[in-house]
Structure formats: structure tokens, C-alpha cells
């Protein structure tokens, strides 16, 4: 039985201009698999192809070539998309809605009935430590608090796969710590998580496996435990591994 939730083979994405002339090769033959229960890191510097890969997995972009499957289905299949949650790099929250109204809104978009939406919203706000601020407008929240609201919105429909695009981007150290603890908590409950980041050090103690991209190509990867074990300085194992892979 195949336990892979995401399977990508030979993924190519070339962006073209109005006359269909190639402008940029964002992905140049990516292969990767994300197994059930993984916290899988798609890591690399800005411009390496991480967000393009994520958008194809989400069905927001069509690949130029290659094969992508999500739960054994095409990414644009509604049955596949109904089983995932997504946290974009930038959280677009309506500033005049409260935290509770925001999460209930996303619950409605996910098709939850009114009673279930209310129960799930209260559970998640409690889990995120936002219960005391649930009736405040999110426009007055700090970046860290707003990120937690966005997390709750992504989790409201109990997805089997959670996709996180640069989840710690722009956050201070305390908020970053909270996000990492949340990811570890979700993983402990058996959720599969795909996370992108250019902050290799941030994700080192969160991910179980990683693929490292550079200029649209895979330059390395494996289990974080193996990469750390081979490093002279475990604190910077992923950075050192990335630098060595690019030079090779």
C-alpha cells in the first residue's frame, strides 16, 4: 500500500509572457514524496522554487511538465482539496472581523454546519491561546497573534494535510517559538505537514525529512536526523548541508 500523500515526479514549471515565450524556468525536474505523518520541509533560499511547488500542489498553478498527485488524485480534484488546509506566507485577514468571526467564516467556506463551526472555532481559539481575545478585531492583533488566527482558520475543517508557506516569516523569536511548538503538537497528533522556509535553522528542529531546493532543482535532502549526525556543528547542520550541496 502506498502511504505517500504527495507524489511529484519530474515537475517542471516555465513561466511565459503574453506571446508564450519562456521567461523563467522556476522548476527544472523536481521529484519528491511526502508520506503520511511526515513533517516535511521544502527548504531553500528565496527564489529557489518552493512557493511555485506549493502552488502546484494546491492546484493554483498548472505544471509545464511532470506528474503531481495529492491523495492519489490530481491536485485540482475537489476531493483532494477538501482534505487539506493551507496557511499562505501572508495572512490576509479582514481587520474589522474578530478572531471568532474570522475562524467561523473559514469554517463556513469549508462547508461545516453552524453548530460544528462554532464548536471547532472555540476549540481552536482555546488551543491557540486566543480565547481571551476572541472578540477583538484582528486588525489590532500583533503579527504573532494574527498568525495564530490564520492557523486556526487553516485547521478548522480538520485537514489530513496542512501546507504551511513560510510560517515563521516576519515573526519575532517568541512568536516563532510558538509556531514551531504548534507544528510539533500537530505532528504528535498524527497530522501530515508540508512546510516551506528559507530559514533552514528555524525548521531543523521541526521537520522529520527535508528536500532542499536551489534555482528550481533538488540539491539534497533526507532525514534531518541523518543530516545533523553528519554535521560538525549540529546547530547549523542544514545550512552547512545546503552550502556543500550547492558547491557540489
Provide the structure class. alpha/beta
- General form: globular
Percent strand equals: 25-35%
What is the radius of gyration? 18 Å
The H/E string reads EEEHEHEHHHEHEHEEHH
What's the topology here?
Elements: E1 4-16, E2 22-35, E3 39-43, H1 50-57, E4 65-70, H2 78-81, E5 84-87, H3 99-109, H4 114-127, H5 143-155, E6 161-165, H6 173-188, E7 192-197, H7 200-204, E8 209-214, E9 217-223, H8 224-229, H9 237-247
Parallel strand pairs: 3-7, 3-8, 5-6, 6-7
Antiparallel strand pairs: 1-2, 1-4, 8-9
Helix pairs in contact: 3-4, 3-5, 5-6
How does this structure look, described?
With 248 residues, the chain is an alpha/beta fold. It has a domain at 95-159. It is 35% helix and 27% strand. The chain is built from nine helices and nine strands. It has helices at residues 50-57, 78-81, 99-109, 114-127, 143-155, 173-188, 200-204, 224-229, 237-247, and strands at 4-16, 22-35, 39-43, 65-70, 84-87, 161-165, 192-197, 209-214, 217-223. The strands form two sheets. It has a six-stranded mixed β-sheet with strand order 5-6-7-3-8-9, sandwiched between helices. A three-stranded antiparallel β-sheet has the order 2-1-4, covered by helices on one side. A hairpin with a 2-residue loop joins strand 8 (209-214) and strand 9 (217-223). Helix 3 (99-109) runs parallel beside helix 5 (143-155). It is globular, with a radius of gyration of 18 Å. The two termini are 36 Å apart. The model has no long low-confidence stretch (mean pLDDT 91).
